[in-house]
């Protein structure tokens, strides 16, 4: 079957613990239409899947005129077992342990569904539509610093899944053995040191200790301060806020140095809300890379060329796509699985 881009329709679903977003997409026009629904966690997984499939059917009904539905892509919180499509103790979806999400969706929809972790779909979007496309690389690694720290790895144009779909969990690499407790049960994971949640915890700890007068003066109750509040204070010169971001950049650099040493990829992308404060984290990040990764020290942009090495060197950059990356990535998942990603999106 040969299809022109304009004839192909996909549906993307971004399943989150708070909201679920569903969009209709064509490679030519991008997102045509989208719906946002509250994730009714209290009603249980079966009801949430009913809501999701109802929204998918609505969008398919409205947008298939003259188009062929190629498939439905879903980005889900992990840990996710693939190819079975089953969730295992997902911290953001309480009560979903063991839930066969892929089977339940395909049973209701009687259509092909492609399921990936939310970090993987964000990486896929950045690869196909963002920096990966701009810089024309076919392998890259992305870390998404949001509520947690997601990680997606694309090698030679394919998402790296590992043996059970759980590859790419760099968010839970240990940065500091005795660091803050992480949601996974370990201490000092990157997620516990550099996520938006970690920044907020660091600020609240300082305030509780009677330190950080500038942050305390914001007058926010415990838990109400946001990573953006801290960024704003840092931009205005608050030393404690600056130090909190610098420390996150340092943690990120330590973790990334390990990844660079392992993979030697041409591109590493930092996405998510924390990465929008790139100027606050990048200095410490690059100091750690230079210090801890000789692969980076040898191949930093410019340096690689001066040594006569091919390519543009090891680039570490903030993401090009913003908060829509997860939904866009879900929309293009069916194209990826049809192995026509670069030519079609
Ligand atoms: Zn962890």
Let me know the average pLDDT: 92
Estimate what percentage of residues fall within beta strands: 15-25%
Distance between the termini: 18 Å
Oligomer: single chain
Helix content: 40-55%
Biggest sheet architecture: 5 strands, mixed
Poorly predicted regions are: 340-345
Number of helices: 14
The largest beta-sheet arranges its strands as: 3-2-1-4-7
Shape: globular
Query: In terms of structural class, how would the helical and strand content be classed?
Result: alpha/beta
The tally of beta strands, per DSSP, is 12
Question: What does the model show?
Answer:
By secondary structure, the chain is α/β, with parallel strands linked by helices. The chain has helices spanning 45-63, 101-109, 118-129, 131-134, 190-194, 196-208, 213-216, 227-235, 239-263, 278-292, 294-299, 303-306, 325-337, 341-344; strands at residues 8-15, 19-26, 30-38, 68-76, 80-81, 86-87, 113-117, 140-145, 149-155, 158-159, 267-271, 315-318. It has a five-stranded mixed sheet with strand order 3-2-1-4-7, with helices on both faces. Strands 10-9-8-11-12 form a five-stranded mixed sheet. β9 (149-155) and β10 form a beta hairpin. It is globular, with a radius of gyration of 21 Å. The protein starts with 7 loop residues before the first strand and ends with a helix. Bound molecules: zinc ion.
Task: Explain briefly what this protein structure is.
The chain is built from 14 helices and 12 strands. The protein is an alpha/beta fold.
